[in-house]
Amino acid sequence: MSDSSADGPGSAVDTGLHLPAKATVLVPETTGTADADLPNFTALTNVYTIHTACTGKGKTTIIDRNDPDSSPIRINCNRPIVVGSVYIDTALQSLAVRIRGGSAAWKVAVVSGAHDL
Asked: What angle do CA 2, 107, 28 make, to 5 degrees?
């Protein structure tokens, strides 16, 4: 584990998203305070689950870097952790976090399969 103050936006740290115990982690818990590309991953099935939370006033979204014109996934800041499942083909996924109109501190993790909070 690394110290988030030593690393820049997108540092992998334990941020308390409390991922499902037996889930296969595709993107480990990652935090940031600015735009960041998440590590690429290949989905193991036709669904993966994004666990995310943020604080601040910026409009925070997750985008598909392979299809930046597609609808982004919005992260509602200052609310409980959000869990959402994404249904896709099993192919390389390239996601990114984007912040607009203010500042925000975010945390994101991706696990294989569909999982509830």
From this structure: 55
- First CA to last CA across the chain, in angstroms? 24
Which residue carries 């392979």 as its tokens?
A: 66
Q: Distances in Å between the alpha carbon of 71 and those of 7, 15, 51?
A: 30, 27, 18
Specify the 3-state DSSP secondary structure of 75: strand
**What is the distance between the alpha carbons of residues 16 and 81, in angstroms, rounded to a whole number?**
10
Tens of pLDDT, residue by residue over 84-111, are 778 777 789 999 999 999 999 999 999 9
From residue 42, alpha-carbon distances to 57, 88, 93 in Å are 32, 11, 6
DSSP strand E in the chain: where?
Answer: 11-12, 25-32, 36-37, 41-42, 47-56, 59-64, 73-75, 82-87, 92-93, 95-100, 104-112
Task: Give CA separation, 77 vs 32, 46, 55, 112, in Å.
Answer: 13, 28, 5, 24
Q: Where are the domains of the chain?
A: 35-106
